[in-house]
Amino acid sequence: MPVQPPSHTVFYLLGMPSLEDQHVWISIPYFISYVIALLGNSLLLFIILTRRSLREPMYPFICMLAGADVVLSTCTVPQALAIFWFQAGEISLDRCIIQFFIIHYTFMSESGILLVMAFDHYIAICYPPRYTTILTHALIGKIGVTIFLRSYYMLFPIIFLLKRLTFCHNNIIPHTFCEHIGLAKYACNDIRVNIWYGFSILMLTVVLDVVLIFFSYVLILRAVFHMPSLDARYKALNTCGSHVCVIILFYGPGIFTILTQRFGRHIPPHIHILLSNVCMLAPPMLNPIIYGIKTKQIQEQMVQILFTKQKSL
């Protein structure tokens, strides 16, 4: 009976393969983007949590999105910067699984938040008199808990699916962070269960969310174009503007990444890695900017805070 080789308990993240000599230059936009994401989302959280004028149901959802953005960027960028600056790519198996879990948990939660925000816009446009009575603070709290519990219970079995594997093929990961299948493919065992379960989660969460968001906006657009007043149509569409921008920004790079992985077999590996990092970093960096520009109430509060600080100085 053949002896099974020992399982790796430590892995090494390479960062951007074939671009090691450019790591310092690549780190500059990473660092700037992370600082913008951290400051922008922290400011957004501070404004929504401290200003009593921002009490409409949509603002708690924006608050959840900003909090998720902080977690998502903090879980990926510092690790990448450690690799780029100090070649500190060593990571234990347990830490790798935890990192993967937090990244995917946050990503799935953000997808759920965007779906609920589409429902929020549908109620605001189609049933404006009942908006605040339908979306009460109690219901918003229950929705938030449901979103985060859905992500947790969907992802939790993957921890056991990964822990059962014996990683004997390789322990060098050509990436800046840990992924489910990216880690599982180094196992000596059969990983078909991991592949199918990962695919099922993707279909039951992110893909289903996209379909429901699309359906929500079909109903919203139908209601908007039945409005008699042109001004009312403009206001209704403007209400959805920031949310649509965030949706495109969140799902767009992910869809593009999947397409390049499926059909771009001749694309260099570092391009795939760069695209996956864009998926993790672009939404946290740009979401607060979009809401600051497109949402008048948030814009006014930002100006007021900055103006007050300058005046006090």
Structure description:
This is G-protein coupled receptors family 1 profile domain-containing protein. One of its GO terms (cellular component) is plasma membrane. Keywords: G-protein coupled receptor, Membrane, Olfaction, Receptor, Sensory transduction, Transducer, Transmembrane, Transmembrane helix. Odorant receptor. Putative odorant or sperm cell receptor. It comes from Equus asinus. The chain has 313 residues and is an all-alpha fold. The chain has one domain (10-304): Rhopdopsin 7-helix transmembrane proteins (Up-down Bundle), CATH 1.20.1070.10. It is 76% helix and 3% strand. The chain has ten helices and three strands, in the order E-H-H-E-H-H-H-E-H-H-H-H-H. It has helices at 23-50, 58-86, 93-126, 131-134, 137-163, 180-184, 192-224, 230-263, 269-294, 296-312; strands at 10-13, 90-92, 172-173. Strands 2-1-3 form a three-stranded mixed beta sheet. The longest helix is centred in the middle third of the chain and has 34 residues, at 93-126. The chain is globular, with a radius of gyration of 22 Å. The termini are far apart. The model has no long low-confidence stretch (mean pLDDT 86).
Short description:
The protein is mainly α. Helices cover 76% and strands 3% of the residues.
